[in-house]
């Protein structure tokens, strides 16, 4: 007998991924942002402020969905651009925007990925004055250590 449960599970996953992709594309259409996929940019997805463009890995699950929303957050959060905030603050604002606008709750894997991303930026503190360390009570630390959720 055919395993319908497995089929249903796979279809649900595909439908969820399609909905997440549509959600990101809808923001791009509404705010005139170019959406480009680069599967080699998992660690280096980007938001281009001048060209209003995001370059993200293909949305194949929760993690890549949140990465895409994060890049949109750099363009759509009022303080998400590192020219308006310090680099570390801009990172936390872009994540805040992603978390506020997502159609799903972040799972453990997503939360871990977000913390790791913010942690990575801490390595650059001191290398450049734009990389100043946020205040103790700043949103940056709340998201990094999980108190935000
Ligand atoms: Zn970022």
In the sheet with the most strands, the strands line up as 1-3-2
What proportion of the residues is helical, as a percent range? 40-55%
* Shape category: globular
Count of discrete structural domains:
1
How many helices does DSSP assign?
5
Low-confidence stretches: none
**Terminus-to-terminus distance:** 43 Å
Largest sheet: 3 strands, mixed
Descriptive notes:
The protein is mainly alpha-helical and 149 residues long. It has one domain (4-144). Helices cover 52% and strands 7% of the residues. The chain contains five helices and three strands. It has helices spanning 4-30, 62-76, 87-101, 108-122, 139-144; strands at residues 34-37, 46-48, 53-56. The chain has a three-stranded mixed sheet with strand order 1-3-2. The protein is globular, with a radius of gyration of 16 Å. It starts with a helix and ends in a 5-residue tail after the last helix. The mean pLDDT is 93. Residues 70, 74, 91, 94 line the site of zinc ion.
Identify the notable features of this structure and list them briefly:
149 residues; mainly alpha; 3-stranded mixed sheet; 5 helices; 3 strands; globular; binds zinc ion
List the helices and strands and how they pair.
Elements: H1 4-30, E1 34-37, E2 46-48, E3 53-56, H2 62-76, H3 87-101, H4 108-122, H5 139-144
Parallel strand pairs: 1-3
Antiparallel strand pairs: 2-3
This protein binds zinc ion.
Zinc ion binds next to helix 2 and helix 3.
Summarize the structure.
This protein is mainly alpha-helical and 149 residues long.
